[in-house]
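Journal club side-thread
Mid-discussion, someone asked how the predicted structure for our own chain would compare to the paper's figures. Pasting it here so we can look after the session.
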Amino acid sequence: MTRTKMYFASSALAIAATGALAVSATMAVAAMDNPMVGGAEMSPQKNIIENAVNSADHETLVAAVKAAGLVETLSGEGPFTVFAPTDAAFGMLREGAVEKLLEPGARDQLTQILTCHVVGADAMAMAIKGMIDDDGGMHIVPTLGGCELKATYEGDSIMLGDERGRMITVTIADVKQSNGVIHVVDRVILPPKPE
């Protein structure tokens, strides 16, 4: 190989390596912008389900999504905003409630509860706060499960009132996903009590 060919070959390799490093650096910066959830990195290139299964704090939620048959939906294009209750949030339900909800006969009830945590839009925290401000301090958030949440905020904390009068707080906001955003919440959102 001539000296000129060797120079061009090594230059091409250097350019390719630089390009690969730039892509890796861009992906690393994007991942760094995302908060950690349940001790795991949340990749903005992965969908809601792909990230949720990595969170040690969302094992109950993942089991519930599987039991309700919502994996394919929440892996879909979206966009979705998911208010994701932690295992501790599910633990606040009355004793035996989670086990009952995971039974095949409770699938419709479980689906309604889970879809009350999902909004058919990509709503970051600042956008939610803007809607709250525009509506004079409280914004109604309609969910895919037919629930209406009352969104308010105090300082940096966004709160959601469910239709049972319970207050749910966003503990980790703006976890970007390829098909939307997750906001981690400290309680399970419940639909209104059946009449």
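Post-session note: Residues 34-185 form a domain with the FAS1 domain fold (CATH 2.30.180.10).
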